[in-house]
Q: What sequence folds into this?
């Protein structure tokens, strides 16, 4: 297995990431921003490929990969898509066997980046654009990752099956007996989006909400991308959680679906992207990471999918609800990291699945 | 009598008979294949995280409803599926093999088509057909009857739905076993009964049924074990319905944070149950001899159905609606319709899904390649392995042959997913580090397909009386020569069938692959499962149809290999 070459500085940074150094050293080691140099592109082309472990809706991820390949010809992106929790398990399994196939990692569960950083698995790499245009809250101080996209786990309904005035407006509305057997919901042991959302809902509304929801005979699917698709099929009338951006895409494609941002606040999901230290294609990985966070890619992601960007120059597409007008629940990756195993256990106990 | 001859032949000092070393070699391979992962499972099931001995895993297994409920659900599904498979497959097998029902050959091909369909693909297709609200059949039902939106004719997300879908894709096992047995039943025995005054029904009851009973019993057993160890269909249908089966429960135990010790413990009851069932089958069949293809029997006589010929055919076709026609119609519909639950029309026809799978989905090519490589190598190696073991056990060729037969049958009791973990534990450490390569998948698929390949070939051997081989050996041939010149030509059809069987088995395999795959060793089944979890039904339909085409192409190709696949050549006439 080929290992990326490290400069002395990056090794220092790595030490900082491992938490072995003092706070002073950590400041000293803050990485310098790096521009996309011809040398980097050249080295990336020489590698010719990269593996992107991602959790984005598959058509979106493949579209992003194709856009990158169009810009940097000769570098093939292999998209490895699954749920965040599933990817987390698989990467751990592969690393335990010293298989380093992942170059770039994208997750919907920001808590995973806390773990990977603590374990020293991530490579510090701060693209110039991230240093310039990303607020501090959306980039790791040690340059290990930055926010690649922001979206929500919302409610939604099928407009053929539910009239607008009858549609649920809040989480509390979902507990109405009239929705029994009519809802679809994704799973926190598969999806990072749902893990994040479950944490926030349990924190703000209490586990009692889920205990009551479990009496509603929900249809349990896995990925947070699936409830919107089940609505579009007409298989269920209402979704209890899932990606708002899939609903936006489906609605804009003319499907009979509508997003609902619940009255209590909507769970906020922040999806970071990073490069693995043991990436087999370190240069292509850095090039892709930088490109994904660039204005060009971020604007494409926002326009194409209806997600949001941390990039200061990205403009929201007209006609969509800006993030600022939605009442949000607060995200808390550290909180998720501390409770994630307990959340999975409790969820499967309540929903028996 | 023949046993005496065969013992006498054993004692004859053979000049050069390399059969023993060859046989022991195979035994060694088998032990590594099977005993290694099983040992790790056993070790895991009785230890805790620190490695200390404990029975706590079993205690939890039998005290918590989270484990007991799946156990019960699995038992219900396996028992009912096995029953329905036999109830449907036995009469159908009889109609095809022993009556003058028209186009029996076509029916056989169609049953093959349902066998070739991976159960998880069938489950997804049945979601498209019979999901309570968006299912096409339910939509038709509402359109025809004017029933309100809330009403549905079928709900595939239910225990009944799962039993139905599992039966659809398990009944070919029973059908093939029964039809083959009936094909081989000699007409002379039935003629003798008739000549002695036995009425048609009496003959059937006293001659035909006892002769096929072993096959039917074996079929019931295989169906039970298949249904018990199936992962894909319950994962696709039971989880949305809100309950687990043993396999999905075990799978969920490997999600983060993984609990392999509990999963290993959960697998052991399934293993014990299987051993018990195999023993029971053995006891029921006992020592009855069913060697019917000897040197002196003729072809079976077909029964004239008269005016029931066409209704019989209609019945077969109605049965085949469920595993073949309807699911493929639904997949075809989903492949070209804009939304999988919409009916395809000329105006909404789209190539979007085809484009996506061919040009955007970066995993397609690699997964296809891996699957075809694994399918052909597993089928070739697996058939050879099964052939030798079946021979050894059928002819009792080496001491300890019972053990060999047991080893070859044992993997059927291990859910693929648990075998996957056993292999994972075995081959991620020295001396064999195979995880991340296609080798580990090859081993998994070999192990999984061995029981059915072995049973199929053993049944074939059992039906060929050793007298033919003995004659050859008395005339001076070594055991291997006798095998090559006498037994091999007689077995040709069975061998081809087994090869195809294993190849198709690899295409169908999901449960071990889902544990053992890495990004570069992904196979089609895993890709489809991934796509199902994210709800990309259009892409699944395209890949599923492509998969069927590839499988059929390979099966047809293999059957066309000159001098190799001459169907029907295995029957001797006097």
A:
């Amino acid at each position: 297995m080929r290992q990326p070459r490290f400069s002395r500085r990056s090794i220092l940074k790595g030490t900082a990431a491992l938490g072995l150094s003092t706070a002073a050293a950590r400041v000293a080691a803050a990485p310098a921003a790096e521009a996309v140099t011809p040398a980097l592109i050249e080295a990336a082309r020489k590698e010719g490929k990269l593996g992107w472990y991602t959790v984005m809706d598959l058509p979106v991820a493949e579209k992003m990969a194709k856009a990158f390949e169009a810009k940097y010809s000769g570098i093939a992106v292999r998209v490895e898509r699954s749920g965040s929790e599933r990817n987390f398990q698989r990467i751990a399994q592969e690393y335990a066997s010293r298989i380093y196939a992942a170059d770039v990692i994208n997750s919907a569960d920001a808590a995973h980046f806390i773990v990977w950083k603590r374990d020293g698995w991530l490579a510090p790499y701060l693209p110039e654009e991230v240093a310039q245009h990303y607020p501090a809250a959306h980039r790791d101080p040690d340059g290990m990752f930055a926010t690649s996209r922001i979206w929500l786990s919302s409610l939604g309904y099928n407009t053929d099956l539910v009239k607008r005035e009858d549609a649920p407006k809040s989480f509390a509305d979902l507990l109405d007996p009239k929705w029994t057997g009519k809802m679809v919901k994704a799973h926190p042991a598969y999806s990072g989006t749902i893990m994040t959302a479950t944490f926030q809902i349990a924190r703000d509304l209490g586990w009692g909400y889920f205990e009551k929801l479990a009496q509603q005979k929900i249809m349990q699917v896995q990925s947070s991308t699936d409830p919107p698709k089940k609505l579009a099929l007409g298989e269920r009338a209402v979704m209890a959680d899932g990606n708002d951006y899939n609903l936006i895409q489906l609605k804009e494609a003319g499907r009979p679906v509508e997003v609902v941002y619940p009255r209590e606040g909507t769970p906020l999901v922040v999806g970071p992207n990073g490069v693995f230290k043991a990436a087999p294609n370190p240069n292509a990985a850095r090039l892709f990471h930088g490109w994904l966070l660039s204005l060009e890619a971020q604007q494409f992601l926002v326009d194409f999918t209806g997600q949001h960007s941390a990039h200061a120059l990205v403009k929201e597409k007209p006609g969509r609800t800006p993030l600022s007008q939605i009442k949000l629940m607060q995200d808390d990756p550290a909180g998720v990291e501390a409770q994630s195993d307990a959340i999975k256990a409790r969820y499967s106990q309540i929903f028996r699945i | 009598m023949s046993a005496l001859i065969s013992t006498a032949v054993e004692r004859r000092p053979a000049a050069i008979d390399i059969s023993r070393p060859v046989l022991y070699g195979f035994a060694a391979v088998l032990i590594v294949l099977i005993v290694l992962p099983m040992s790790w499972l056993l070790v895991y099931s009785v230890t805790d995280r620190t490695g200390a001995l404990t029975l706590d895993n079993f205690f939890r297994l039998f005290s918590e409803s989270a484990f007991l409920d799946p156990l019960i659900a699995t038992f219900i599904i396996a028992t009912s599926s096995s029953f329905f498979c036999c109830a449907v497959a036995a009469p159908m097998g009889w109609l095809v093999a022993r009556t003058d029902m028209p186009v029996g050959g076509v029916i056989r091909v169609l049953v093959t088509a349902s066998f070739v369909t991976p159960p998880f693909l069938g489950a997804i297709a049945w979601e498209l057909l019979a999901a309570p609200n968006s299912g096409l059949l339910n939509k038709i039902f509402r359109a025809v009857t004017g029933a309100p939106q809330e009403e549905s004719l079928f709900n595939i997300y239910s225990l009944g739905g799962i039993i139905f879908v599992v039966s659809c894709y398990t009944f070919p096992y029973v059908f093939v076993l029964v039809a083959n047995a009936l094909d081989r039943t000699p007409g002379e025995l039935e003629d003798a009964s008739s000549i002695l005054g036995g009425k048609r029904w009496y003959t059937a009851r006293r001659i035909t049924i006892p002769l096929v009973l072993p096959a039917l019993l074996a079929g019931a057993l295989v169906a039970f074990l298949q249904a018990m160890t199936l992962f894909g269909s319950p994962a696709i249908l039971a989880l949305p319905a809100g309950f687990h089966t043993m396999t999905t429960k075990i799978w969920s135990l490997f999600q983060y944070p993984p609990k392999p010790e509990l999963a290993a413990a959960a697998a052991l009851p399934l293993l014990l149950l299987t051993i018990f069932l195999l023993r029971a089958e053995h006891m029921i069949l006992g020592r009855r001899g069913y060697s019917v293809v000897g040197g002196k029997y003729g072809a079976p006589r077909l029964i004239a159905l008269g005016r029931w010929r066409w209704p019989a055919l209609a019945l077969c076709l109605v049965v085949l609606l469920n595993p073949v026609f309807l699911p493929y119609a639904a997949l075809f519909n989903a492949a070209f319709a804009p939304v999988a639950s919409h009916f395809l029309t000329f105006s909404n026809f789209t190539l979007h899904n085809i484009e996506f799978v061919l040009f955007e989905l970066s995993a397609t090519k690699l997964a296809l390649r891996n699957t075809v490589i694994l399918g052909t190598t597993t089928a070739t190696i697996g058939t050879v392995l099964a052939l030798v073991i079946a021979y050894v056990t059928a002819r009792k060729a080496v001491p300890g042959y019972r053990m060999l037969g047991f080893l070859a049958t044992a993997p059927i009791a291990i859910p693929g997913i648990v075998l996957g973990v056993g292999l994972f534990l075995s081959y991620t450490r020295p001396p064999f580090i195979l995880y991340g390569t296609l080798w580990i998948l090859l081993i998994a698929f070999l192990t999984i397909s061995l029981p059915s390949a072995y049973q199929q070939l053993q049944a074939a051997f059992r039906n060929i009386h050793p007298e033919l081989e003995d004659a050859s050996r008395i005339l001076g041939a070594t055991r291997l020569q006798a095998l090559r010149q006498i037994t091999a030509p007689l077995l040709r059809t069975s061998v081809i069938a087994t090869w195809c069987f294993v190849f198709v088995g690899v295409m169908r395999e999901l449960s071990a692959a889902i544990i053992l795959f890495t990004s570069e060793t992904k196979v089609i089944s895993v890709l489809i499962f991934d796509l199902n979890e994210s709800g990309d039904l259009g892409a699944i339909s395209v890949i599923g149809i492509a998969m069927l085409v590839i499988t059929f192409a390979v099966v047809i190709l293999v059957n066309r290999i000159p001098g190799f696949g001459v169907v029907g050549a295995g029957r001797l006439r006097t």
